[in-house]
UniProtKB/TrEMBL annotation:
Binding locations of FAD: R457, Y458, Y459, S460, T475, A476, V477, Y481, G491, V492, A493, T494, W680
Name of protein: NADPH--cytochrome P450 reductase
Organism: Rhopalosiphum padi (Bird cherry-oat aphid)
Major location (coarse): endoplasmic reticulum
Protein's GO biological process: response to hormone
Length: 681
């Protein structure tokens, strides 16, 4: 036997050792006790489990979007489908369009499925020819500076670097872009051309949707002609049958335990209570609001300086990056929907995909309450698209309301005109539609299926991690405006942020989910390189970080290059944001020159573009003679375009070039990252 220290001891009096020792008896008692409790506990659990009703277990986006098999070809073959619609989506619109195409395929005897290229082995495209009368459609958005969306990046690189033989693949492409940006629909155009180069057959010409105009109209018009081309190519006819089959079915989750119900988390259940690094789009960090102060000195508009506390989060950012903020809808609008539809917003439910082969089991984290879905997961403030008008028709009890919805859902010139005027021009959201068409009473679960996902909002970071490693600063204008129907529409994110005011007492500080999105908007690698920054209004935001970083380098004793800032606002005494900071940087030599344009402080309006035209020599000296960098931040629709035209003109005149040579020079600056833009429309 062994002693308590584990050292073996030989027994010298064997005959005197008892047959059953005290230790043996003790062990026997323990075993009997454990067996007794195990048996009766198991029996109790067994009987209770028989009484327990079936419940839906919560699923997160990670499980929603995972697939056990990345071969979409096998799924097509095993389910008798011939149509696959891929999407490259950053905000959900491309995914929505893909779903609508796949659903309409049934009208043409083409059973369809929607696929995320990030989850698929796209090399399987070479096997599409094995499926009779097959078709692959690509709804692809262009993002940033002509980049693919995050979920389409691998597919894009596969096309660039591979040389697969795609002969026998039939395809069509619809692009989602914005004409105010230079790289309009660049990704869709590339994919369309590259597929043809690899031997695929284009069934229908590429469609280009412009989000700055009416992308819904662009898509509807292209889709209508797409099916005409499909019928012609495959020798098939439209069945005329409208597919009203819902994509998701309602599951009652009233018996689900409270701790298994989502309450606003983006992905993982209870992720805000148990935070785990790394933080990203599916796992945001719940940041405290450390500072929230007003930047405008007077007037009826508001601009907020907000600081997010990231101390202890392990999050790191670079100057020029963006921060994503997850908003929530106002309780007033959410309650209004419940009131209009006479619905119990606190009922717990789940929406389960009727397509068992789909990797997307739920449209948003389920189970949850209707209140949670409408508050955190669904976009209830944007203009609904035509397919929602179509789905609402069956819920209208008044013939007049029904006819109005039918008209707006149609692709006729009259229908498009009505949709534009009543929805887009008058800026109606789903709440307004339900108010103005009182007989329309959709089932709330169906409405939740139809509405798009609520998206995070991106802001240029207005601080430098060298100076503020434990916080992220943003500069945001409060969005409020009156619509033609005399309703006040409020920006979802900025109105939420305006309410999150930190307190000085021991009360819990307000929080909001965030994550960092990397950007290509970067200072030159060498601190000596001269730069020009053009940022009117909140376009100043990233340049505040640039200036802080150069000021930090100067204080460290490093040589810094010229920094020239062009800033503009309405009135010096009203909305000149960060005035004291900027004047201090001028005084200490970090900011070489500060050019200011106050548009309404004199009879004739004066903008930063006027100052640029006046300072052609300075511009050319920095970007031409000293090979400096030029940065633009702000409105893409007019300001950024005007700046680009002025720069080309300056290069022509001061560099003594032709228009073509000047355009090529500016293009080369962009390729060398010497001309960078961080703009929005």
């Amino acid at each position: 036997m062994e002693n308590s220290e584990g050292v073996k001891i030989e027994s010298t009096v064997v005959t005197e050792e008892p047959l059953i020792s005290a230790l043996d008896i003790a062990l026997f008692v323990v075993i009997i006790t454990v067996a007794y409790f195990w048996y009766f506990k198991r029996d109790k659990q067994s009987s209770s489990s028989e009484k327990k009703p079936y419940t839906i277990q919560p699923s997160s986006l990670s499980s929603i979007e995972q697939t056990s098999n990345s071969s979409f070809i096998k799924k097509l073959k095993s389910t008798g489908r011939s149509l696959v619609v891929f999407y490259g989506s950053q905000t959900g619109t491309a995914e929505e369009f893909a779903g609508r195409i796949a659903k309409e395929g049934a009208r043409y005897k083409m059973k369809g499925m929607v696929a995320d290229p990030e989850e698929c082995d796209m090399a399987d495209l070479v096997e599409m020819k094995e499926i009779q009368k097959s078709l692959a459609i690509f709804c692809m958005a262009t993002y940033g500076e002509g980049d693919p969306t995050d979920n389409a990046m691998d597919f894009y690189e596969w096309l660039q670097n591979g040389d697969a033989d795609l002969e026998g693949l039939n395809y069509a492409v619809f692009g989602l872009g914005n004409k105010t940006y230079e790289h309009y629909n660049e990704i869709a155009i590339y994919i369309d051309q590259r597929l043809e180069e690899l031997g695929a057959t284009r069934v229908h010409e590429i469609g280009l949707g412009d989000d700055d105009a009416n992308i819904e109209d662009d898509f509807a018009s292209w889709k209508e002609k797409l099916w005409e081309s499909v019928c012609s190519h495959y020798g098939i006819e439209e069945t005329g049958e409208e597919s009203n089959i819902r994509q998701y079915k309602l599951v009652d989750c009233s018996e689900v335990l409270p701790e298994r119900i989502f309450s606003g988390e983006i992905s993982r259940l209870k992720s805000y209570e148990n935070q785990r690094f790394p933080f990203d789009v599916k796992n945001p960090y719940l940041s405290k609001i450390a500072v929230n102060r007003e930047l405008h000195k007077s007037g009826d508009r508001s601009c907020m300086h907000i600081e997010f506390d990231i101390d202890g989060s392990k999050m790191r950012y670079d100057t020029g990056d963006h921060v994503a903020v997850y908003p929530k809808n106002s309780s007033e609008l959410v309650d209004k929907i419940g009131e209009l539809l006479n619905a119990d917003l606190d009922a717990v439910f789940s929406l389960l995909n009727t397509d068992e082969e789909s990797s997307k089991k739920h449209p948003f984290p389920c189970p949850c309450t209707y209140r949670t879905a409408l508050t955190y997961y669904l976009d209830i403030t944007s203009n609904p698209r035509t397919h929602i008008m179509k789905e609402l028709i069956e819920y209208a009890s008044d013939p007049k309301d029904q006819e109005k919805l039918k008209l707006m859902a149609s692709s006729t010139p009259e229908g498009k005109k009505e949709f534009y005027e009543w929805i887009l021009r008058d800026n109606r959201n789903i709440v307004h539609i339900l108010e103005d068409l009182p007989s329309v009473k959709p089932d709330l679960d169906h409405l939740c299926e139809l509405l798009p996902r609520l998206q995070c909002r991106y802001y240029s970071i207005s601080s430098s991690p060298k100076v503020y490693p434990k916080s992220i600063h943003i500069t945001a204008v409060l969005v409020n405006y009156t619509t033609p129907t005399n309703r006040v529409n409020k920006g979802v994110a900025t109105n939420l942020l305006a309410q999150l005011i930190p307190t000085n007492d021991e009360l819990p500080q307000p929080t909001i989910p965030i994550y960092i999105r990397r950007s290509q908007f970067r200072l030159p690698p060498k601190s000596q390189t001269p730069i020009i920054m053009i940022g009117p209004g909140t376009g100043l935001a990233p340049f505040r970080g640039f200036i802080q970083e150069r000021d930090y380098a100067r204080k460290e004793g490093r040589e810094i290059g010229e920094m020239v800032l062009y800033f503009g606002c309405r009135k010096k005494d009203e909305d000149f944001i960060y005035e004291n900071e900027l004047q201090e940087y001028v005084a200490n030599g970090t900011l070489t020159k500060l050019h200011l344009a106050f548009s309404r402080d004199q009879p004739e309006k004066k903008y930063v573009t006027h100052l640029l035209e006046q300072n052609a020599d300075e511009l050319w000296n920095i970007i031409g003679e000293k090979s400096g960098h030029l940065y633009v931040c702000g409105d893409a629709r007019s300001m950024a375009k005007d700046v680009h035209s002025i720069i080309v003109k300056v290069v022509m005149e001061k560099g003594q070039m032709t228009n073509s040579q000047a355009l090529n020079y500016v293009k080369k600056m962009e390729q060398q990252k010497r001309y960078s833009a961080d703009v929005w429309s």
